[in-house]
Amino acid sequence: MASTDGPALAPKSSTSELKTRVLSAIVMIVLALAAAYWGGWPFALFWLAAGIAMMIEWSDMTGIEPRRTVQAVFGLGLMALTLLYLSGASFATGAVTGLAFLAVGSLLAKGSHDRLWAASGFAYAAVIVLVPPMVRDYPGIGALGLIWMFAVVWATDIAAYFTGRTFGGPKLCPAISPKKTWSGFIGGLVAATLAGFLVVRLGGRFGVTHSLPAWSTIALSMVASVASQIGDLAESALKRHCDVKDSSHLIPGHGGVMDRLDGFWAVSLIIGIVLLAAHGVA
């Protein structure tokens, strides 16, 4: 039966999968942009939900035990971080709270191996819970900075996918992700650089103030695109290590939340470090 039906059904199946991916992507983009427009607590809760989903996917993939207990503690910890951020608590208060929940959840895990995976999962989720709201609320950056992050990551992902499929060529990192190519990497880099530059330039035309010269915008967009692709590869390496195809099946056509936010997470990590350093200097 496989030899008879396979070739005839393959194109239809591929087209159907692409439609599902596109529709899911449109829904996610609309939700993300709507939350970004509202800002405040709706935006923070949007990323809290994403962070909790990522933490659950991480602990499910790595097989931490007792899984549900650790997930419950870490979920409460992520909620506490969000509430502290929304209430305007100091960085020190948030850091102490986060470390306390990280320690409790990790110590509940069985064995040093599970504890390391547990701690890593909480830290991983905390980045996505806190950095986007920080960017949205940061003076002089705000919504423009957030849209820049979206544009760079989305342009990287879309252009790398279609450029790689169109031109093929040498593999980028076949041991981790056999389908990724250098042509896709370069296509994603070029598209993200252009998208990031255009977002910042257009923002200035619409009265959104910023102090970045053109060369800085281009350089930051390139760095962010490379980070996004490294984040994608890192998540692929984790899935290969855990012997799973997708982080979960939560999003039709896309897998899990980690599968969709791996690149955005990497960019968030870099931007979070930059903002903390700038705040410290200030």
Number of strands: 2
> Number of helical runs?
9
The overall pLDDT average reads 89
- What spatial form do the alpha-carbon principal axes imply? globular
Summarize the helix and strand pattern as letters: HHHHHHEEHHH
Cα-to-Cα separation, first versus last residue: 68 Å
**Uncertain parts:** 1-10
Rg is: 20 Å
Number of domains: 3
* Biggest beta sheet summary: 2 strands, antiparallel
Beta fraction of the residues? under 5%
Strand order of the largest sheet: 1-2
Helical content band = over 70%
**Which structural class is indicated by helix and strand composition?**
mainly alpha
How is this structure best summarized?
The chain is an all-alpha fold and 282 residues long.
Describe the fold and architecture.
A two-stranded antiparallel sheet has the order 1-2. It is mainly α and 282 residues long. Helix 1 runs antiparallel to helix 2, helix 2 packs antiparallel against helix 3 and helix 6 packs across helix 9. It is globular, with a radius of gyration of 20 Å. It has 3 domains: 38 residues; 97 residues; 136 residues, no CATH class. Helices cover 81% and strands 3% of the residues. The chain has 9 helices and 2 strands; from the N terminus they run H-H-H-H-H-H-E-E-H-H-H.
